[in-house]
Amino acid sequence: QVQLVESGGGLVEAGDSLRLSCGRSGRVRGTYAMAWFRQAPGKEREFVATISWSGSDTHYADSVKGRFTISKNNADNTAYLQMNSLKPEDTATYYCAAAPVNPLATVALTLASDYDYWGQGTQVTVSS
Q: How does 5-35 read in b/e, with b if 16+ C-beta sit within 10 Å?
């Protein structure tokens, strides 16, 4: 079992920045792609960003490209989502996800069904 815990959410104004963190514990051995998804009230969960185990491959939803940056530190089992130039449309609960992958995999995983482990989410609210 792998446990994921998100932190760093909060209430900010449009144009502000936040950095979300995702700590991975439990069965931490193995190689994982990491991702961030988000879900707003009344809407479906949507893909935000993903990063390969090596960290060399990243993929972003068009809505956040150029504003958000995903990164990870395999040494301490932590993934991050740097969120800049936040917009009210970014308001949602943000979820961290992990998927066991070949350490050399380069194909981006953008579907929720690709991921085996999920955190409980952290709320991000952006006021206008």
A: ebebbeebeeeeebebbbbbeeeeeeebbbb
- Between the alpha carbon of residue 27 and those of residues 70, 94, 112, the distances in Å are 22, 22, 21
Number of other residues whose CB lies within 10 A of the CB of residue 126: 20
pLDDT digits (tens, 9 = 90+) for 81-121: 999 999 999 999 999 999 998 888 877 899 999 999 999 99
**Rounded to a whole number, what is the largest CA-CA distance in the chain?**
42
Spatial contact of 88 and 14, defined as CB atoms under 8 Å apart: yes
> Do 48 and 58 contact (CB within 8 A), yes or no?
no
18-72 tens-digit pLDDT? 999 999 887 767 898 999 999 999 999 999 999 999 899 999 999 999 999 999 9
Whether the Cβ atoms of residue 80 and residue 71 lie closer than 8 Å to each other: yes
